[in-house]
Amino acid sequence: MLGLLFLTIGLRAGAGSAHPGMAARARRIVMAHPPATWLRLFLCTWIFGAVCVAMATQVPGLSQLLLAFAAMKWTGYFMLTYVTFLRPDVKRGPWLAIFLCE
To answer: Which of 29, 49, 62, 77 has its CA 20 to 30 A from that of 69?
Structure first.
């Protein structure tokens, strides 16, 4: 538990000061695009990640870089989750299917 406390303190110190308008800005960005755009973004990052993982096994010299790129699928997943629960007009079925697959 002590390690978790220090990790939390370090993350908060590294993040810097809070920006009060950041949440409103993120909400505006999400609302400016239709939900299908965010689903396509996730699918593109998922495919890109799968290709990078496949290439990492074939090109050992670039494996660390390719595996780091493969982790970008989680940004697409985060955005899809944010959109799904922020917007009331979004059906949660596709998100649930993706959640269960992950």
So the answer is: 29
Residue 38 lies in a domain: yes
**11-41 pLDDT tens trace:** 888 887 878 888 899 999 999 999 999 999 9
How far apart (Å, rounded) are the C-alpha atoms in residues 27 and 83? 9
Contact between 79 and 42 (Cβ < 8 Å): yes
Residue 75 near residue 45 (C-beta atoms within 8 A): yes
Instruction: List the domain range (segments joined by +) for residue 79.
Output: 34-102
**pTM, entire model:** 0.76
How many domains does the chain fold into? 1
Residues 6+ apart with CB under 8 A from 77: 42, 45, 98, 102
